[in-house]
Amino acid sequence: MSKPLPVVVADLPPEQRLHAMRRWELVRASLTGGFESAFVPNGLFLLVAVQYFEAGSGLKALIAAGHAIGLLLTLGLLTVVGRRGWRTTRVIAICYFLASLALACGALLPSLPSFLVASLVGTPLVVMCVPLITATWRQNCPDELRGRYFSQVVRAGRGAAIIAGVAISWWLGSDAGRYPVPLLVLAVLVGAAGFAVWRVPSQAVAQQGRNPFAALRWLWHDKIFGYLSLVWMFMGLGMLTTLPLRVEFAASAETGLGLSAGLALAINVVVPLVVQLLSMPWWGRLFDRANF
Which of 194, 184, 271 has its CA nearest to residue 24? Predict the structure, then answer.
């Protein structure tokens, strides 16, 4: 068995750990925020597939599923990280570096196969890190402050995503074939985010046993958590199912409105992000007050 990596988080006082994490997490979120304009199921990837590559239904469904693929892969990632004793931020950084390479491949080799690599490799690698980011916050931030501080980081990410969404919408205009330049910029930003998250103090995820599905017992052992998970599951299914259809309707000239690439991206990405940015402080305060 491999020996666990040294637990750096224990070498710093709690106040310094929290300060370091907040600083570098703000940097990470600001750098990766622009990627949200691309990897969400109604973002840049699907828009380019519809308007530029004129992909068939199967390919469009596969590109739209990149986010869901990343969520499914989190189960295996958490299991491996827990068994190996790897530090969470090291794993996140490596995933970001690999995602950056995939995005650069899609930008520097503009073709449908390389575009699929960027979408179906880069997107899952970023998405599957979300539980590890949550674990890092649990290691470094007290329960009573987590919602407020994390909402600040999320707001920074949403603000960056709005700026990136507006910039990408302006750059694309009416030509979705201009996607390589924003894709290359996003590759650089994701790679830089890997260096930022490398600086965040962290430790290994606690091993929860050999059965990766054992954590599902909390769905009925903790009734509040089970109820929230059930509600979110139904909301998530509905949202993730309809998001790609909104892009198809807005961007496709045959089955929808045939809007320009920039306008379709602004409607489907920028407007929802603005609403999230404005509502995030309220949700952060609610999280700190609610009994989760």
Answer: 194
| Residue 119 CA: distances (Å) to CA of 44, 46, 73, 240 | 10, 9, 15, 16
Burial class (CB in 10 A: 0-12, 13-18, 19+), 256: middle
Q: Are 126 and 43 in contact (CB under 8 A)?
A: no
Helix, strand, or coil here: 148? helix
> In 3-state terms, the chain is what percent helix, strand and coil (to 5)?
80, 0, 20
From first to last of the 292 residues of the chain, give the pLDDT tens digit: 334 333 444 456 777 888 889 999 999 999 998 777 666 656 788 888 888 888 888 888 888 888 888 888 988 888 888 888 899 999 999 999 999 999 999 999 989 999 999 999 999 999 999 989 988 998 888 888 887 788 888 888 888 888 888 888 889 888 888 999 999 999 999 999 999 999 998 888 766 656 767 777 878 888 888 888 888 888 878 877 777 788 888 888 777 788 888 888 888 888 888 888 788 778 777 777 776 5
**94 burial level (CB within 10 Å; 0-12, 13-18, 19+):** middle
Q: How many CB atoms are located within 10 Å of the residue 109 CB?
A: 13
Q: Single out the residue of 263, 67, 275 nearest to residue 158, CA to CA.
A: 275
Tell me, yes or no, if the pTM score tops 0.70. Answer: yes
